[in-house]
Design goal:
The protein has 218 residues and is an alpha+beta fold. It has one domain: Nuclear Transport Factor 2, Chain: A (Roll). 36% of the residues lie in helices and 31% in strands. It is built from five helices and six strands, in the order αββααααββββ. The strands form two sheets. It has a four-stranded antiparallel beta sheet. A two-stranded antiparallel ribbon has the order 1-2. The chain is elongated and about 60 Å long.
């Protein structure tokens, strides 16, 4: 046998050997076989059990908070109101913070009343009335929101009321004048930082899109 024929026999033998080994490793399929049901391994113990939407964590939620209870609450809010966006809510809350803070500082609650719960509105009225009784006036200018973070979220499935608590660090200038116009506190050039922790609430799925400030703190 010439060299070329011997080489072909060697190659054919190698090919047959590889086919046999592949069958041993992969097995064979005869006729119809139902597809396998691949099951994902359970997450490691102690890892956050985030709600999964369309095969992965909802970035609109987990990009802002990773507390499991809050993630679950925000997920349920989205289920109650599919168009709800955490990112858009936070953008609106930033604007509401300036409106409410300046309305309170300037003693003008008419425009912000729809954004306040009855309890918060009454507390603002009481403080403003006390300032007026003492003849005090406040001159304030809002500079901006330096920091803002979503602290926690809660959802009541019985009432469909969602609550979101946000921590703000605002920057503003502020001075207080007495009844004679004399400055007794602050100035109009020094920027001060003000820390606030506010909780907003709303019935998810309701026709009224406005969230209301239901609790304040620092």
């Amino acid at each position: 046998m010439n060299g070329g024929g011997l080489q072909l026999l060697v190659l054919a033998g190698i090919a047959i050997f590889l086919i046999i080994k592949l069958k041993d490793v992969l097995g064979t399929r005869d006729g119809f076989e139902p597809p396998r049901e691949d099951k994902l391994a359970p997450p490691p113990a102690g890892s956050p059990n985030f709600e999964v939407i369309e095969g992965g964590p909802d970035r609109d939620i987990v990009d802002h908070i990773n507390d499991p209870d809050s993630v679950e609450a925000l997920t349920k809010m989205k289920q109650a109101e599919p168009n709800f966006s955490v990112t858009e809510f936070l953008g609106g809350a930033r604007g509401a913070y300036e409106m409410i803070l300046m309305g309170f500082e300037h003693g003008n609650l008419d425009e912000i009343e729809p954004l306040l719960s009855e309890d918060v509105h009454q507390s603002f009225v009481d403080v403003i009335a006390d300032r007026e009784d003492r003849g005090l006036t406040i001159e304030a200018k809002f500079i901006g929101v330096r920091e803002m973070s979503l602290a926690r979220a809660e959802f009541d499935p019985k009432t469909s009321v969602g609550e979101v608590t946000i921590k703000f660090v605002g920057e503003l200038t502020s001075l207080v004048r007495d009844k004679d116009g004399k400055i007794i506190e602050g100035d109009d050039t020094t920027v001060k930082r003000q820390k606030d922790t506010w909780t907003f609430a709303r019935t998810m799925g309701a026709a009224d899109p406005n969230w209301q400030l239901v609790q304040t703190g620092d």
